[in-house]
């Protein structure tokens, strides 16, 4: 098998390269198609022409040969009729053959074969040639049979000569009779067709050469014409690829005033418009990020002052009237929320400025899940939910930033408690050789079609009229997404109305290693557990990270 594989490997590689070139190059397909069609048309036209010329040459040769042979048959029959009755029949036939052959010697037109058939049966062949010795086997048996039926007949044949020489020819035969003895004489004219064959051979070679030249010229014309069209298209593709890579100043060369030139001009105008809009959006985004960052930092100082005053009021609330005490408590709660919002805004600003960094360490995700679940149990109890923690027996160690992964999982669990409507919540940890995953499953209101793709957007809410009861800021899942992306992982969501939602975080066990799968399927089964047989994802029910390619 190894020998066969080694022998077949080079042709297979060559075939793959040819297929790749064929699929990727429009010019190759057009030129190849032109060559093939041109070759077929040229071959068909050449075949028609060669057939017409061949039929014309042979028809003319047959007509001339039949005329020559008919005249010879009449002359030979007249000579037999005028012969002396006392002459020797043997000498008569020999002399007759020599006379006929000598008449063809002047132009080398034909050879003759004479079969003498006495009345007693059998026959004797007398062969005479005007140039070289001709063999009686040059006359086909089929022609002899037709001549014996008293008719003039002809047939193509091979003329055999002494020394093994052969040439194509035409045999024409007729039966003559000696009137006194009743003996039959079968006379055959053998006309050489070698000259016609040489003409046809020369014509065939000329047609092949001219046809090959025409096909080559048509291929060159097709290559030149397609190059004029394909080159601007290739240039447009290259410029588009560079634009997609962020080189917004790339433009196509404009030559002439034809359709392709107008296409290049329109393409450049489109690229310039996109560049202006992208630059405007980038500038607007930069201003927005700067504004958020500056506002967040500037609010830190007054917030600290307000926090100190609120703490004093909160500690002394027992000395205030009930209404004032309640106001102090509300102020403390809202300040906590405002402080959390500022912290989240500052974190988002660091992500936008690409200033976020990881402090990697080997972390067992089971420990992270235990800590987050234990911290969330009081909140879940207040909402009427139970958290079911499902951990593997083996450690699920991955190289991660503990603080960020704990924050991601805490956001997912709190989000499940918020929208779980008091039903149970399942937190699951799983790992294999290359990836580790943590999933959070709730059975609450779920997600409508299309919402799974928006759930990680900043400040997005499924129901804007629904009040937050867990103190969220609206940035938790957006920050969680950025944290997971920073690890080179996936954060994905699935959901259906009234079936709940399922969030899955997948991380490489080695930092920044590529991911191609997750130990936990994204789509759960009807019982709420995650079923490996239901790993397929409906497009409207889940959201994957851009470029992940993972359902």
TrEMBL record:
SUPFAM superfamilies (UniProt xref): ATPase domain of HSP90 chaperone/DNA topoisomerase II/histidine kinase, HAMP domain-like, Homodimeric domain of signal transducing histidine kinase
Residue span of region Disordered: 515-551
SMART domains tied to this protein: HAMP, HATPase_c, HisKA
Keyword field: ATP-binding, Cell membrane, Kinase, Membrane, Nucleotide-binding, Phosphoprotein, Transferase, Transmembrane, Transmembrane helix, Two-component regulatory system
Protein name: Sensor histidine kinase MtrB
Membrane association type: Multi-pass membrane protein
Spans traversing the lipid bilayer: 31-50, 202-225
Domain of life, per lineage: Bacteria
Domain Histidine kinase stretches: 294-511
Top-tier EC class: transferase
Organism in which the protein naturally occurs: Thermasporomyces composti
GO cellular component labels: plasma membrane
Assigned EC number: 2.7.13.3
InterPro entries: HAMP_dom, HATPase_C_sf, HATPase_dom, His_kinase_dom, HisK_dim/P_dom, HisK_dim/P_sf, MtrAB_MtrB, Sensor_HK_Regulatory
Keyword S-adenosyl-L-methionine attached: no
GO molecular function, one term: phosphorelay sensor kinase activity
Reactions accelerated catalytically: ATP + protein L-histidine = ADP + protein N-phospho-L-histidine
Subcellular location: Cell membrane
Pfam families: HAMP, HATPase_c, HisKA
Domain HAMP: 227-279
């Amino acid at each position: 098998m190894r020998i066969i594989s080694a022998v077949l490997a080079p042709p297979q590689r060559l075939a793959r390269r040819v297929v790749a070139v064929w699929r990727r190059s429009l010019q190759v397909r057009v030129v190849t198609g032109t060559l093939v069609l041109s070759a077929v048309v040229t071959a068909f036209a050449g075949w028609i022409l060669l057939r017409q010329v061949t039929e014309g040459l042979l028809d003319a040769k047959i007509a001339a040969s039949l005329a020559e042979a008919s005249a010879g048959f009449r002359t030979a029959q007249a000579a037999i009729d005028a012969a002396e009755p006392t002459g020797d029949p043997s000498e008569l036939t020999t002399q007759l053959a020599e006379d006929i052959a000598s008449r063809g010697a002047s132009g080398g037109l034909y050879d003759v074969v004479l079969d003498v058939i006495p009345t007693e049966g059998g026959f004797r062949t007398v062969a005479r040639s005007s140039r070289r010795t001709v063999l009686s086997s040059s006359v086909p048996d089929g022609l002899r049979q037709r001549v014996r039926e008293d008719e003039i007949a002809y047939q193509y044949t091979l003329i055999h000569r002494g020394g093994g020489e052969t040439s194509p020819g035409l045999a024409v035969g007729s039966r003559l009779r000696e009137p006194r003895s009743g003996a039959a004489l079968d006379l055959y004219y053998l006309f050489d067709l070698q000259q016609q064959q040489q003409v046809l051979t020369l014509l065939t070679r000329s047609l092949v050469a001219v046809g090959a030249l025409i096909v080559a010229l048509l291929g060159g014309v097709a290559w030149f014409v397609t190059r004029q069209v394909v080159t601007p298209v290739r240039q447009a593709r290259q410029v588009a690829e560079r634009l997609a890579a962020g080189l917004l100043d790339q433009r196509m060369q404009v030559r002439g005033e034809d359709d392709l030139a107008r296409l290049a001009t329109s393409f450049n105008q489109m690229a310039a418009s996109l560049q202006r809009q992208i630059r405007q959006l980038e500038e607007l985004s930069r201003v927005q990020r700067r504004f958020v960052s500056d506002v967040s930092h500037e609010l830190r100082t007054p917030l600290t002052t307000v926090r100190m005053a609120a703490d004093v009021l909160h500690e002394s609330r027992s000395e205030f009237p009930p209404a004032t005490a309640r106001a102090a408590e509300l102020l403390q709660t809202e300040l906590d929320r405002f402080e959390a919002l500022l912290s989240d805004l500052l974190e988002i600003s660091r992500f936008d400025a690409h200033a976020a960094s990881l402090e990697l360490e080997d972390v067992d995700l089971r420990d992270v899940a235990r800590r987050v679940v234990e911290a969330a149990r009081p909140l879940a109890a207040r909402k009427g939910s139970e958290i079911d923690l499902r951990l593997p027996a083996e450690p699920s160690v991955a190289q991660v930033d503990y603080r960020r992964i704990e924050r991601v999982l805490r956001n997912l669990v709190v989000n499940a408690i918020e929208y779980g409507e008091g039903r149970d919540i399942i937190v699951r940890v799983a790992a294999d050789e290359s990836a580790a995953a943590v999933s959070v499953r709730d059975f609450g209101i779920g997600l409508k079609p299309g919402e799974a793709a928006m759930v990680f957007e900043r400040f997005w809410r499924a129901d804007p009229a629904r009040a937050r009861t867990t103190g969220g800021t609206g940035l938790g899942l957006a920050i969680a997404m950025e944290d997971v992306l920073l690890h080179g992982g996936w954060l994905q969501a699935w959901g259906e109305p009234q079936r709940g939602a399922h969030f899955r975080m997948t991380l490489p066990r080695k930092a920044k290693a590529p991911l191609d799968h997750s130990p936990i399927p994204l789509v759960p089964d009807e019982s709420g557990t995650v079923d490996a047989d239901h790993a397929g994802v409906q497009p409207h029910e889940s959201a994957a990270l851009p470029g992940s390619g993972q359902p």
